[in-house]
Amino acid sequence: MPDTVHLGSGKVRELYALGTDRLLLVASDRISTFDVVLPTEIPDKGRVLTGLSGFWFARTQSLCPNHLLALRPDGRSTECRRLAMLPIECVVRGYLAGSGWKDYWTTGEVCGHRLPPGLTESDRLPEPIFTPATKAQSGHDENITREEAARLVGADTLDAAERLSIALYRFAARHALGRDIIIADTKFEFGTDGDGRLVLADEALTPDSSRFWPADQYTPGRPQPSYDKQFVRDYCEKTGWNKTYPGPPLPADVVAGTRARYVEAFERITGIAFADYLARPEAVLAGAAGAGRP
Ligand SMILES: Nc1ncnc2c1ncn2[C@@H]1O[C@H](COP(=O)(O)OP(=O)(O)O)[C@@H](O)[C@H]1O
Ligand SMILES: [Mg+2]
């Protein structure tokens, strides 16, 4: 690949420049938990994330333009438009979990959204809310107020990012619920193209960028089991690991169980057998015409 230059590594992806205006995002099988990348990989996890993102990109084009140009035959590499990324993470929450639940418990608010009293952990919110965060270079992302986010990206851009984020979340949450998966919350990343248009980038609506909960086990009033990482989290808790680097290596049964959950999430949401995706990644892009209209 003569015109390909390695630009850097994220926690999960390797970034390459393709010429001047395109990127190749290669999703590895690395897994992180409690923000620590573990020494053991989950086979095919990067393919699951790439395929799911492609599935959603193909179906939400009419809601929001996105960066996808092509999926490569390896199933883990995405060719995309290279954008100027906004320095915020666009988080949408449909349920009370994680830092949202903690903030509500102490203040009755989540990032400036006053919520009705009497909600319990994991409750569904009356309406999804937009709670932007900073992109931390290392460690935990931090919630910020609307005003801080507006200072970072401009008020009009923030309004547009909020509107698009909520629309994307509503569309995906409805689809996923029909397949017995609750998308409790999710994080989008947007960039701007040469014409200053907002474009959805990165990965979208995957178990890594979202909280996926099995709908059949949903019980508010406690934390919900995570669709994909529960085996890993349970195992890590058992070892007494202190949640800092280095993380513990994972035994074979934890790896196999976790892989099966990622594949199951993929198959449920896309309705496509994972083996068919491996044989022909573009399968996730087909059949999307007309989808995603509000
Ligand atoms: N279309 C794009 N143009 C430019 N940068 C992008 C695009 N899509 C994704 N990115 C960036 O590529 C990186 C993806 O790598 P990843 O491993 O997910 O990183 P992280 O550890 O920050 O989650 C992120 O920094 C993301 O902002
Ligand atoms: Mg990422």
Task: Pick out its properties.
294 residues; five-stranded antiparallel β-sheet; 16 strands; alpha+beta; seven-stranded antiparallel β-sheet; binds magnesium ion; 7 helices; binds adenosine-5'-diphosphate
What does this structure look like?
With 294 residues, the chain is of the alpha+beta class. Helices cover 31% and strands 26% of the residues. Helix 1 runs parallel beside helix 6 and helix 3 packs across helix 4. The structure holds adenosine-5'-diphosphate and magnesium ion (MG). The site of adenosine-5'-diphosphate has 17 residues, from strand 2, strand 3, strand 7 and strand 14. Adenosine-5'-diphosphate binds next to strand 2, strand 3, strand 7 and strand 14.
Short description:
Helices cover 31% and strands 26% of the residues. By secondary structure, the protein is of the alpha+beta class.
Number of strands: 16
| Radius of gyration, CA atoms, in whole angstroms | 19 Å
End-to-end Cα distance:
40 Å
What are the low-pLDDT stretches, counting only 5+ consecutive residues below 50?
none
Quick one: overall form?
A: globular
On the 0 to 100 scale, the average pLDDT is 94
**What is the SS-derived class?**
alpha+beta
Order of helices and strands: EEEEEHEEEEHEEEEHHEEEHHH
Helix content: 25-40%
